Amino acid sequence: MQEDLRLFHQIAEKLFQEEETEPVVKPIPADQVYDEFNLHLNEEGISQDEFAELIEKVVLNTPRTSSKLFFNQLFGGRNSKATLGELLAVLLNTSMYTYKVGGPQVGIEKAILQEVCKLINYPENAGGTFAPGGSMSNFMALLMARDVADQHIKKEGISKKMTLYTSAESHYSTQKNASFAGIGTQQIRKIATDDLGKMIPAEFEKQVQQDIADGYTPFFVNITAGTTVLGAFDKIEALDEIAKKYKIWSHVDGAYCGAVLFSEKYKHLIEGVENVDSFSFNAHKMLNTPLSSSIIVTKNRFNLHHTFACDANYLYQTDGDDFNLGKTSLQCGRRNDALKFWSLWKSVGTKGLEKMVDHQFDLAETARNYIKNNEDYTLYSYDESVSVCFNYKDLDPKVLCNLLYEEAKLMIGYGNFKGRDFVRLVTVNSNNSDKEIVNFFKVLEKFAVQLEAQQV
Ligand SMILES: *Cc1c(COP(=O)(O)O)cnc(C)c1O
Question: Which atom of ligand 1 is nearest the CA belonging to 170?
């Protein structure tokens, strides 16, 4: 192990250097990846020297998602404490299904869940778990809702048409999950959004009434806290009130921006979250924890047990259900996704997490101001969002983003809202300062000049 740890250290040092000097690597076209690297597996192993050389080459040619020019998805940056926690979790190789195997690591997962429940003012008998990502957190919520609507489904399967509701701007996991859960994608009702990308409560209620009249059973509403493109927050209170009226499970998908719960200044964006049936957020997005670290909490932990607990006497042999987290999990063997988030949280405190969240909104403000003060730009976003959507001159955002990638200038993506395409800058890397945000625009502008020169 020692030799490989030295190799790890050596490669890490090189990577850190290169992230500084060359924040974006030149991409290798997918159809050339096997020509470029010796990736195929063979009968015989390779020598340590060959191995060291090869793995270093692969690492140094992998897209640099932690650099200051990566803005492509809703994660970024490298938090050193969280990364340390992750490295130790790998070293320990704990499986988080029982206390017998997890020991204090289970205590760590439970401590996080308890504190999250407390911070959102959930009642005493709330509970939660770490899921393998935000999509799977949403899946767990959907399954709990399904089993609350009809407690016999677990055993007998679905026998009626059950409808669920989500905004037209919500994440695509709803589609997958409706099919996984046996609900069927046809039973998804995509509710229209207003000009800010928020689900319109009156439209939601109208659709529920229509479905009841048509003989369907409405059972689940997915409320988004930070839509994937615009970063819009649905109005939780208004939607939850309607949900309660029709006995519909309300879930808040905060995968992207649910971490506002840590901020005094921004937690009003999830006002009313204490009343919903379940809430999830990704520490691997706004909280810069390595992928993946996703948390779902539910107001009544009985629901987690009802939907997910199965007996397995070859596994659950000691310590009781409260400390045997496999009983409330999608998986059997469970990766330790808690230690990395705990390492960060414990070292900076809740106040430190608040600073990270507030800082990201400040960075977005800087970006919006830059755009507003420069008439070559058109802004599509609004205040209180960490997604800054814009266009530059009359450049096609798709062409621009793809060329920036191919030419290794910037990692940035585009989005679409109400028929308009635009560049989407996400300011979720807490290591960035205003300087990096301004630099982002300068890199983009410089590239645009080159592009124009080529076209003439
Ligand atoms: C990212 C995202 C998800 C999915 O989370 P994963 O961890 O990538 O599965 C779900 N909902 C929203 C709103 C998201 O932005």
Answer: 13
